[in-house]
């Protein structure tokens, strides 16, 4: 299926390309600073979080953050870098308080993704030890953790499977969420409904994608979108899953086997220097799951106005209470990948145009980016708004004197080793 060019598919693609080119060439209306997207699709929540919450930032020994960063600066540029930039942002944010007694939330700046392998991946066996050590330091240095056992604390855990701290799902599920974080609010890139690695009350954030790098690759907005479907990335992980049945739950392998010869699909494992430019020439950008259900492609597609085709069952998307994902994306069930060609070519032109107009708005793009310096309505603001919407803290957050909920000795034996 999908390997021969059907006449109806070619005609549909040609029509879409023609109309999309006209949309691309039309000048965008100037956006207000906190503008909502026009139309009945709604828009990004544009609340200003200042005045709605106060955050106390723990001052941690440098070994938990700055020394790790100095040891390997690659963690400033990888997709987990939100934990570093969130720390930098909060240090100068108007929501920061130097008086812990008036704080709504407490933040522990610990860079668990900065301990990297030679290939640049976070060491999964080290991350939970770093986090446990940091929590122990906080609990023994200040009184605030012990009042709630972390229920008024939030942590950045931008790993593949969040606070399960592993890139392979089976290993992540075996470990589970680090027990000491069970009462805390987790701010994490991972989100999948009904999954042991997603904790109730977690805030799902986008992975880090460098705003300056993407800005440098913008092309003329009048450039026609001459690519129907675009994707660059792995279809098989030959080193860890050579048969392709486990990696991406077989969805990526199915994309390749069904559409590698389909002229509507520009897909390859090669990553060209024109990758960002190519996304701006595409109508649809595939965003399939990999080892985890999320990837930076989602952010890149939105920034470049390419309609994300999300292939990841039960995914919880970044800032889902603030961004109208249903209106700007196409969702395809993993089992329906063999029908991708018919699904995409059957989308009415007016629906494609509407998604493109919504994607052209500044507020959606802004909400997915961790700008330096921060900008109103960007990903930093969305995190703070997510925290503000959880206030006031509910009954049961503050423990009675002597009351304990968490077990410091729970967890895998390997995770209990000192760091």
From TrEMBL:
Supply one GO CC term from the record: Golgi membrane
Q: Where is the signal peptide?
A: 1-25
Q: Where is the Exostosin GT47 domain?
A: 52-347
Query: GO MF terms on file?
Result: glycosyltransferase activity
- Give the UniProt keywords, A-Z: Glycosyltransferase, Golgi apparatus, Signal, Signal-anchor, Transferase, Transmembrane
Looking up InterPro entries in the UniProt record yields: Exostosin, Exostosin_GT47
What is stated as this protein's family in its record?
Answer: Belongs to the glycosyltransferase 47 family.
Protein name (record) = Glucuronosyltransferase
């Amino acid at each position: 299926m999908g390997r021969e060019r059907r006449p109806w598919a070619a005609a549909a693609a040609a029509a879409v390309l023609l109309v999309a080119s006209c949309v691309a060439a039309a000048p965008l209306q100037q956006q207000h600073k906190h503008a909502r997207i026009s139309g009945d699709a709604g828009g990004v929540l544009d609340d200003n979080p200042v005045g709605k919450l106060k955050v106390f930032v723990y001052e941690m020994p440098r070994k938990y953050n700055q020394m790790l960063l100095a040891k390997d600066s690659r963690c400033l540029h990888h997709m987990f870098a939100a934990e570093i930039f969130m720390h930098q942002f909060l240090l100068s944010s108007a929501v920061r308080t130097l008086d812990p007694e008036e704080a709504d939330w407490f933040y522990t700046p610990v860079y668990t993704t900065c301990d990297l392998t030679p290939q640049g991946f976070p060491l999964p066996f080290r991350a939970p030890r770093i986090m446990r050590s940091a929590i122990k330091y906080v609990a023994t240095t200040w009184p605030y953790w012990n009042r709630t056992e972390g229920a008024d604390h939030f942590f950045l855990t931008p790993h593949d499977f969040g606070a399960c701290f592993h890139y392979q799902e089976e290993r992540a599920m075996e470990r589970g969420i680090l027990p000491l974080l069970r009462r805390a609010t987790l701010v994490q890139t991972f989100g999948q409904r009904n999954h042991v690695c997603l904790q109730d009350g977690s805030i799902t954030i986008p992975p880090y994608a460098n705003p300056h790098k993407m800005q440098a690759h913008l092309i003329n907005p009048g450039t026609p979108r001459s690519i129907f479907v675009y994707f660059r990335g792995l279809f098989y992980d030959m080193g860890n899953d050579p048969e392709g049945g486990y990696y991406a739950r077989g969805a990526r392998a199915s994309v390749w086997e069904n559409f590698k010869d389909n002229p509507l699909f520009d897909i390859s494992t090669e990553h060209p220097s024109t990758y960002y430019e190519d996304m701006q020439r595409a109508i649809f950008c595939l965003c399939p799951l990999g080892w985890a259900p999320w990837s930076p492609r989602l952010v890149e597609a939105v920034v470049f106005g390419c309609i994300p085709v999300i292939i990841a069952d039960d995914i919880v998307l970044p800032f889902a209470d603030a961004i109208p994902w249903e209106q700007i994306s196409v969702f395809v069930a993993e089992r329906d990948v063999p029908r991708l060609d018919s699904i995409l070519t059957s989308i009415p032109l007016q629906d494609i145009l509407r998604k493109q107009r919504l994607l052209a708005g500044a507020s959606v793009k802004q909400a997915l980016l961790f700008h330096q310096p921060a900008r109103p309505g960007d990903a930093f603001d969305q995190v703070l708004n997510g925290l503000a919407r959880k206030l006031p803290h509910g009954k049961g957050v503050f423990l009675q004197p002597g009351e304990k909920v968490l077990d410091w000795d729970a967890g895998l034996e390997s995770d209990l080793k000192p760091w």
